[in-house]
Design brief:
Blueprint lengths: L4 E3 L6 H5 L7 E4 L27 E5 L13 E7 L2 E8 L2 E8 L11 E4 L2 E4 L5 E5 L9 E5 L6 E6 L3 E7 L2 E6 L4 E5 L5 E6 L4 E6 L2 E6 L3 E5 L6 E6 L1 E6 L2 E8 L2 E10 L2 E2 L5 E4 L1 E3 L8 E4 L10 E6 L4 E7 L9 E3 L2 E5 L5 E5 L5 E5 L15 E5 L4 E4 L3 E6 L4 E7 L3 E5 L2 E6 L2 E5 L1
Parallel strand pairs: 1-2
Antiparallel strand pairs: 2-28, 3-39, 4-5, 5-6, 6-7, 8-9, 9-10, 10-11, 12-13, 13-14, 14-15, 16-17, 17-18, 18-19, 20-21, 21-22, 22-23, 22-24, 25-26, 26-27, 27-28, 29-30, 30-31, 31-32, 33-34, 34-35, 35-36, 37-38, 38-39
Pfam families: PQQ_2 (PF13360)
Protein name: PQQ-binding-like beta-propeller repeat protein
């Protein structure tokens, strides 16, 4: 099916989506402003490095390599800094950390760091801080800096009530034992700000943006220098992208998307755009894919926009009489649209360039049916989808499967690598 392109940029809103028309899978392209190169996109967004051919297990961490690991599967990559990964797991009821080489899985330290009921994290420069609480209170509790080469603990400040920790700049965001108190402190214990939330809080830094999620469904985008709200909402979602963030909220049956620019981790409090009646299609991706929200039963086909949250403008849009209204899959630097005949077409998110297509999946082959799978990640050559039992990589440029890989657990992408958590083991594919 041919693609037609035009160089015009339409305004965002329900009127725009409804007026796209049903040409032969028309791409309306616009200028992408300020988009970073793929290798500059840190961490997530489903961007894979390589995997054009069938992978193999590069390394695995399990009870043989992690002292004291229990069999409850509570193991994860807690933080990363370049090729150094902090892996955390439970040993009994306490949390311990090891620093591993992301290429080989080899431990950098002779013994893990026992944080007890506390936590460890990297700061922005790659220094490791640990809030150690071997008991809920006691003289051994404190904040320590960890020698990256040896794992030796150097005391930085006395006492600690910290149960969770996130690095930001040269400081750390602490969450106290109750889960309600959040503060920013230097390694020496100097407090820059502190605040208390109405429900237990979980902070995270994504694309340099500090977001606190509370157990009552609220989201807070904080100014990291002051701890004050830049954006706050209830029963909403905040999704960060390399150039900005999107806040999705529902009220009185209406879904609203607000777009904000981010520069060097600083969120501009003035929205670049606000639009009612649109929703972000879920999936890890470098740009948001949006479509009409709510009851679309009267729509005859799918209509989608790819937006730059930093400008609030449409990068490109697509509509077609044969385009499905469901099963769209944003995936890393690509997006896959389903047609009504269940075939698929792939485009590059950054500019709407056509990557290729896949035929309708054969009956009896659920591993090849993207409708039933979730995006793991994609590179320029392949898009990897999966479920709890198998990963399947598709090569849209040739219209076929590139490889399959059996799993028994969950797959994610960390710094361009596919990471598997299967029971009480953590593995990386290469």
């Amino acid at each position: 099916m041919p693609i037609q392109t035009r160089s015009r940029l339409l305004p965002l809103g329900m009127g725009t989506v409804a007026a796209l028309g049903s040409a032969a899978l028309v791409i309306t392209a616009g200028l992408v402003l300020g988009q970073p190169a793929e290798d500059e996109i840190a961490g997530g967004h489903g961007v894979l490095h390589g995997y054009a051919s069938a992978p193999e297990t590069a390394w695995t961490l399990d009870e043989q390599s992690l002292p004291g690991l229990t069999g409850d599967g509570d193991i994860e990559v807690a933080d990363t800094s370049g090729d150094d990964w902090l892996v955390s797991y439970t040993a009994g009821i306490r949390r311990v950390y090891v620093l591993v080489d992301a290429d080989t899985g080899a431990s950098r330290w002779d013994a893990p760091v026992n944080a007890g009921f506390g936590a460890c994290a990297f700061d922005e420069s790659g220094d490791i801080g640990c809030a150690v609480r071997t008991r809920t209170d006691g003289p051994d509790n404190g904040f320590f800096l960890v020698d990256r080469e040896s794992g030796h603990l150097e005391p930085a400040s006395r006492g600690s009530d910290t149960a969770d920790l996130v690095g930001i700049g040269a400081d750390y965001i602490h969450v106290n034992d109750s889960g309600y108190g959040v503060s920013r402190r230097s390694p020496s214990g100097d407090e820059q700000w502190s605040r208390t939330f109405a429900s237990s809080a979980t902070p995270a830094v994504s694309d340099g943006v500090l977001v606190v999620t509370t157990s009552d469904g609220a989201r807070f985008v904080l100014d990291p220098a002051t701890g004050e709200d830049v954006v706050a909402c209830q029963d909403c979602e905040v999704t960060t992208y390399p150039t900005g963030l999107v806040v999705s909220r529902s009220h009185d049956g209406t879904t609203t998307l607000d777009f904000y620019r981010v520069s060097d981790g600083v969120v501009d409090p003035d929205r670049t755009r606000s639009a009612d009646g649109l929703q972000v299609v879920p999936g890890p991706s470098t740009l948001p894919v949006v479509t009409a929200a709510g009851d679309t039963v009267l729509e005859s086909h799918g209509r989608y926009q790819i937006l730059d949250p930093g400008t609030g403008r449409a990068v490109w849009e697509v509509a077609d009489a044969e385009l499905s209204k469901v099963h769209t899959r944003p995936c890393g630097p690509q997006v896959s649209f389903a047609r009504k005949d269940r075939s698929r077409v792939f485009f590059t998110l950054a500019d709407g360039a056509r990557v290729g297509e896949l035929p309708e999946p054969a009956l009896g082959h659920p591993e090849a049916d993207i409708d039933m799978l979730s995006c793991v990640g994609a590179s320029d050559e392949v898009a990897v989808f999966g479920n709890g039992s198998q990963l399947t990589a598709f090569r849209p440029s040739t219209g076929d499967q590139a490889w399959t890989f059996p799993i028994n657990g969950d797959a994610s992408v960390i710094d361009g690598r596919i990471v598997l958590v299967q029971g009480s083991t953590l593995s990386v594919l290469r």
